[in-house]
Amino acid sequence: MSSDSARALLIVEDDLALQKQIKWSVDKFESVTANDRDSAMVQLRRHSPAVVTMDLGLPPDQDGVTEGFKLLEQILTVEPDTKVIVLTGQNDQANALRAVALGAYDFFAKPFEPELLNLTIERAFRMFELQKENRRLQSMYQPDALAGLVTRDPEMLRVCRTIEKVANTTATVMLLGESGTGKEVLARGLHQTSSRKNEKFVAINCAAIPENLLESELFGYEKGAFTGAAKTTLGKIELANGGTLMLDEIGDLPFSLQAKLLRFIQERTIERVGGRQEIPVDVRIVCATHQDLKALSKESRFREDLYYRLAEIVINIPPLRSRKGDAALLAYSFVRRFAREQNRGSLNLSEESVRAIERHPWPGNIRELENCIKRAVIMADSNQILPEDVGLESPDLEIGDSSLDLRAVRDNAEKNAIISALGRVNGNIVKAAELLGVSRPTLYDLMYRLGLK
Ligand SMILES: Nc1ncnc2c1ncn2[C@@H]1O[C@H](COP(=O)(O)OP(=O)(O)OP(=O)(O)O)[C@@H](O)[C@H]1O
Predict the structure, then answer these.
(1) Which atom in ligand 1 lies closest to the alpha carbon of residue 185?
(2) Which of 97, 109, 101 is nearest to 443 (CA)?
(3) 350 CB under 6 A from ligand 1?
(4) Which domains does the chain have, with CATH numbers?
(5) How far is the CA of 145 from the centre of ligand 1 (A)?
(6) What is the DSSP letter of 273?
(7) For a tag site, which of 2, 252, 257, 451 has the least CB within 10 Å?
(8) Closest Cα to residue 238, out of 204, 268, 281, 201?
(9) How far apart are CA 179 and CA 393, in angstroms?
(10) Which residues contact 330 (CB under 8 A, 6 or more apart)?
(11) Of 251, 154, 242, which is closest to residue 198 (Cα–Cα)?
(12) What is the dihedral sign for C-alpha 79, 3, 85, 89?
């Protein structure tokens, strides 16, 4: 445990002899004890333990599980980040799975193996610390204007610092990055950090508007300028007057309009379509593209003089796959956001999901990850988001460290046995359950948990 994790382990066990035995066998952790639901909740409030081990059979229902499940729900409502390890009877896998589905961190069958229990508790503490660290980092690095931006990647943090530095200059900023890397978020951040923050931020996507409409969208038009121009209408440039104009996908600006934009940047005046008056406009320009504008200008598809006008400050935004640690950090933050929006209470990513997220290359960058987590929050049947909810393959067992991870070894062995059994009986669940010596519902639960369904 790290020094900051002086947070206790809470052991909830009504059998006092067993309680002592557990406490003794996990004596490297600082522990407190409770023997029923009420005393457990008192201890929870008093010590805010990071990890709880609890028996499901608590008084007055020692032989059942009602008190145990009530306690589990209460703990996760009051302290959703607590890692709860449920101790179950030997053949009580159905309740163990139900507990995990409700948000328990792990389960453990009694009689327990002290070494394994120690290992599981240690992992739970580590997970707790990791999540806490993620939240700390998230709150640390955010200047107010870039508050919605989640990152701990050194390159992205440099990008944020550059944005802050240039915000109050008049320099035109060019944001280069793949789709979904947060170009608009950064452009808005720049606007918010600048002295123009109380004026408008107007964005226009040059790729999304047909060429014949783009000119009037940008520059506006006078009444009667063309058929259907019933009244004088301001364009985006004029609408942004005093504020910031974001020209998104600038690489798609038609050649014919590039000259007109260049003129505006040089003269700082516009002429509406069908108009003859020069109208002065004061806007800060930020442009963005995923294209290589220099290459486009070599091919004479983008005016070189315009490029140099727009590229006073060029900021390269790294793709998500090269931001260290950001995929998981963003995923945690999106889970919290969408769980709140969808009233899903305490919802957590399973360890497998986190690993799968870390390994995925995210070609659609943060937008793809955001959509993926939104879907997962809707799809998750339990309080744990599994790799299949995220739509990602469960990562295979790693050679090395995690081959020593007994839970993963056990999961993998169970998965292989189930796949073999199902293969042998041609997919017949009843027969496979018989072959494996478990009930049909247990097999279904197992298949679900192991991502075989
Ligand atoms: N660092 C970040 N932290 C939190 N959310 C982010 C971050 N970066 C991007 N997002 C979110 O990801 C989505 C995509 O971001 P944005 O629209 O800014 O990307 P873009 O690069 O402008 O994409 P495109 O080139 O396709 O227009 C948005 O919903 C945005 O809120």
Answers:
(1) 18
(2) 97
(3) no
(4) 3-140 (3.40.50.2300), 150-318 (3.40.50.300), 321-395 (1.10.8.60), 399-453 (1.10.10)
(5) 15
(6) B
(7) 2
(8) 281
(9) 24
(10) 150, 151, 320, 366, 369, 370
(11) 242
(12) negative
- Asked if this assembly's ipTM is beyond 0.85, the reply is yes
Ligand 1, residue 151: give the atom nearest the CA: 1
pLDDT digits (tens, 9 = 90+) for 244-297: 999 999 999 999 899 999 999 999 999 999 999 999 999 999 999 999 998 899
Regarding the beta carbon of 318 and ligand 1, being less than 6 Å apart is answered no
- Write out the two tokens for 420: 């073999």
Q: Which residue has the tokens 């170009």?
A: 183
Cα separation of 338 and 304, whole Å? 44
272 Cα–ligand 1 center, Å: 32
Reference 88, options 186, 3, 13, 164; nearest CA is 13
Cβ(49) – ligand 1 distance below 6 Å? no
Amino acid at 283: V
Contacts for 62 with CB less than 8 Å, ≥ 6 apart: 14
Of ligand 1's listed atoms, the one at least distance from the Cα of 290 is 25
